[in-house]
Amino acid sequence: MTIKTFQYKSAFKLESGKKLRSLDIAYHTYGKLNKDKSNVIWVCHALTANSDVFDWWAGLFGKNDLFNPKDYFIVCANVIGSHYGTTSPLSINSVTGLPYYLAFPEFTIRDLVAANELLADALEIEDIEMLIGGSLGGQQALEWSIIAPERIKNLVLIASNAKHSPWGIAFNESQRLAITTDRTFYGNAKNGGAKGLRAARSIALLSYRSYQSYDITQQEKDAKKRSDFNAAAYQRYQGDKLLKRFNAYSYYYLTKAMDSHNVARGRNSVKEALNLVKANTLVIGIKNDLLFPIEEQQFLARNINSAQLVEIDSFYGHDGFLIETGVLTQHLAAFIKKDSIKLDSKILKIA
């Protein structure tokens, strides 16, 4: 599917009070909207992903997968700040005629949700049959279900939380420290902060994976080796891999947006905010998730009305929400069947 762009030509007011003079939202759709518009699956993506959910969540989304274009109208929008087509620090500032870079205003999870709301209105989608997201995507999905509880019918939160933890914020700040140590970050160039981003990704990966995964995949066979260890090479490889598809400015701002996540802001308490969710809710947690510990998903399930909780094991830690598509398919198919969401009869045999 080709990427599309929705252009919001009015000023877009951010939670901070600052404004973007206009807003472009890049998005993908798959399948067709049925007559009663009851087959919408809306995906909120994570930190460095994009709107092409068939690419990065293959095995769960695809022609032969649980969420397929034969049965559903699937929508995924690229978030504000991400350079995959939506207005970001690399976009042209109409005031200066130059890219924003560090002049881009800070934004929050709620701003990402507001952009999704604009797109849904533009697509004339009143009801969302299922809203699903993992990690940063789950933070967006939860906020949206609080902001517009009547719009979201079924909600799936994977490896996410009600507010970003001091632990998670500390990881993000460590990454930003790495980025800002690179002097080129302040040079207002597209590749500014590249070395810093490489180091930041290395830090992040430690929170995405687990001790077990490194112990098995990066183990040394040569006991005589004194340097250039597999684990060190792997960290460099992952840093270089991200550099080929992302930039330091988007990364810097998006980690700040993740830090902003707190459903209690302006709502008295976290529990009162979660009580506003009306959607049938499935919460999925990964038992050995270092970044979003299982206790965070247990808290969500306890405090969202009638929420179901599923805990899964994953060799990959937090990254399991992207990789364990077979297990996710089983639990999501069961949830869909239980809550009478439309589903192809062949897929129901999985549950």
TrEMBL record:
<dbReference type="InterPro" id="IPR000073">
    <property type="entry name" value="AB_hydrolase_1"/>
</dbReference>
<feature type="binding site">
    <location>
        <position position="201"/>
    </location>
    <ligand>
        <name>substrate</name>
    </ligand>
</feature>
<dbReference type="GO" id="GO:0004414">
    <property type="term" value="F:homoserine O-acetyltransferase activity"/>
</dbReference>
<protein>
    <recommendedName>
        <fullName>Homoserine O-acetyltransferase</fullName>
        <ecNumber>2.3.1.31</ecNumber>
    </recommendedName>
</protein>
<keyword id="KW-0808">Transferase</keyword>
<keyword id="KW-0486">Methionine biosynthesis</keyword>
<feature type="active site">
    <location>
        <position position="318"/>
    </location>
</feature>
<keyword id="KW-0028">Amino-acid biosynthesis</keyword>
<comment type="similarity">
    <text>Belongs to the AB hydrolase superfamily. MetX family.</text>
</comment>
<dbReference type="Pfam" id="PF00561">
    <property type="entry name" value="Abhydrolase_1"/>
</dbReference>
<feature type="active site" description="Nucleophile">
    <location>
        <position position="135"/>
    </location>
</feature>
<dbReference type="InterPro" id="IPR008220">
    <property type="entry name" value="HAT_MetX-like"/>
</dbReference>
<keyword id="KW-0963">Cytoplasm</keyword>
<keyword id="KW-0012">Acyltransferase</keyword>
<comment type="function">
    <text>Transfers an acetyl group from acetyl-CoA to L-homoserine, forming acetyl-L-homoserine.</text>
</comment>
<comment type="subunit">
    <text>Homodimer.</text>
</comment>
<comment type="pathway">
    <text>Amino-acid biosynthesis; L-methionine biosynthesis via de novo pathway; O-acetyl-L-homoserine from L-homoserine: step 1/1.</text>
</comment>
<dbReference type="InterPro" id="IPR029058">
    <property type="entry name" value="AB_hydrolase_fold"/>
</dbReference>
<feature type="binding site">
    <location>
        <position position="319"/>
    </location>
    <ligand>
        <name>substrate</name>
    </ligand>
</feature>
<feature type="active site">
    <location>
        <position position="289"/>
    </location>
</feature>
<feature type="domain" description="AB hydrolase-1">
    <location>
        <begin position="40"/>
        <end position="322"/>
    </location>
</feature>
